[in-house]
Every structure is written in C-alpha cells, then in structure tokens.
Specification:
Layout (H helix, E strand, L loop, with lengths): L7 H18 L3 H28 L5 H21 L4 H4 L3 H6 L4 H28 L9 H14 L3 H23 L4 H17 L5 H13 L8 H29 L8
Helix pairs in contact: 2-3, 2-6, 2-7, 2-10, 3-9, 6-10, 7-10, 8-9, 8-11, 10-11
C-alpha cells in the first residue's frame, strides 16, 4: 500500500541526491578544476548585479535588499544551468560520504580543489570588472556600494560570521537541492531565486560570493591598506559555516525521507 503521508517529490529528490552528488565527487580533477573556475566567475557576475542594485537603490530598505538578492541569484542560476562546480553546493557531498557512495578523502579533495577554483574564477572576474571601470558606474555609487559591503562584512565578529555562514548555505543548498531535479529551465530559476534573495537580503555570509565582493570593495578604496587579516578571517569562518549549513541540510533532508535512518 502506498504511504500517502509522504511527499513523493521530496522522496524522489532524496533518493537521487546521494547518487548525483557522488557522481560529482568522482569527476576527474581537471574537469572539476575547470568547472570550479567557471562557477567562481558566475557567482562574481551575481555579486556585480547585487552591487548595481545596491548602488541604484538609494537608502537601504527591505525591498532594496530583496531586489539585490534577486539580482545576485543570477550567479547561482548560471551555475546550476551550466552544471559547473560550486563549493557551497558541494558541501552536500557529505550525503554520499555517509551512504558509502564516496570516500571522505575524495570529498575533502573535491572540496579543496573546488574552493580554490572558485577563488580563482571569482578574483579573475572581479579584476576584470574593476579594470573595465565598473566601480565608476552610476556616478561612482557602485564603488561606494562595494566599499560599504566590504566594511559590513569585515566588521562582523567571528561568531556572527560563522553563524551567518551556516544560515547562508542552508538557504543556498535548499535552492541547489531543488534545482538539481527541476525538469525545466523555468523551474530551476523559480526554485533558486527565493532562497537566494532571502540569504542576501539578510546579509548572510557566502564564502564564494565574498571571494569577489571583498576584492572589489578593496579596489574601491585604493588609498587604504588592504585588510588581509580581516579578509582571511571572513573567508575562513564563512567557509566553515557554509560547510556546516550545507551538510546539515543534506543530512536532515535525507534522514527525513528515510535514506539514512531505516523506518521500522
């Protein structure tokens, strides 16, 4: 007899997620490196879109923040539609590791390579944006928005950065989880925009987004010393938070649909 208390869509996604994530973990290293560089660049495009809305939105308000988040979602849409490798989404590889589909060593290697690749792509697009005069756009207000964004991120305490990173990647991985199995392009876009808009509007910390936002912010104030220590601290603790948030979502959803805990 069919169990009508279960959501069939959620159960199907949970059934297929571990296999899909294991397949990603087993990509050859060269392919993974290339796709991770591309993904970093795509998220940087989303960060640029975010700054444009911030610059043109006037005083900070709820609607402006939500619109900024919707603009930033372009980055994750590009990642999901093109099938590139994003570190924050790949934190869900803990699921196939838990089910035996991939070794912990392979997951650690994939995470390291993709994180570095995302950094390379992010910094490259950020540099191109600055060199193209992007900071001077909208009468220089894009540069002002970039500097303000950087300052707000670097002013956070370690605890705030860590917890903010957890919340950010819970939302990002919910978007990725749903988008992985959306059957149409419009479906992928629809499930991505909402969670991403919320995390950006709330000011949560996404390590890969920060890989482009921080350098662009530094470039907006070239006369000041680059705060390397604060920047590295932000990336370190937002990364740890992102791992916790993404891993938690994958494991909780899998457990909820009986993929890790057998029902009696």
């Amino acid at each position: 007899m069919t169990d009508t208390t279960k959501d069939p869509a959620g159960a199907v996604i949970a059934e297929q997620a571990a296999e899909a994530l294991a397949a990603k973990a087993h990509h050859c290293w060269a392919r993974m490196a290339a796709l991770s560089i591309a993904a970093g660049g795509f998220i940087a495009f989303g960060a640029i879109a975010y700054l444009i809305v911030q610059a043109g939105g006037g005083a900070v308000s709820g609607p402006t923040q939500l619109l900024s988040g919707a603009a930033f979602s372009v980055g994750l849409i590009l990642v999901m539609v093109t099938g590139t490798e994003l570190f924050t989404g790949n934190t869900m590889m803990v699921l196939p590791a838990a089910t035996g589909g991939v070794t912990a060593a392979r997951v650690a290697g994939a995470w390291t390579l993709v994180w570095v690749g995302n950094l390379v792509g992010s910094v490259a697009v950020a540099g191109l944006f600055v060199a193209a005069g992007g900071l001077d756009g909208l009468d220089g207000t894009i540069g002002d928005a970039a500097a303000a964004t950087m300052e707000s991120k670097l002013d956070k305490s370690v605890l705030a950065t860590l917890t903010s990173g957890i919340l950010a990647n819970m939302l990002v991985c919910l978007a990725v989880w749903m988008a992985m199995f959306a059957r149409t392009l419009s479906g992928k876009v629809a499930v991505i925009v909402g969670p991403v808009a919320v995390f950006v509007a709330a000011g949560f910390e996404h390590s890969v987004a920060n890989m482009s936002l921080l350098p662009i912010g530094w470039a907006a104030d070239p006369n000041s010393a680059v705060p390397w220590g604060a920047g590295l601290r932000n990336l370190a603790f937002s990364t740890v938070g992102n791992v916790i948030g993404g891993a938690s979502i994958a494991l909780i959803l899998a457990c909820g649909h009986g993929k890790l805990i057998r029902e009696e």
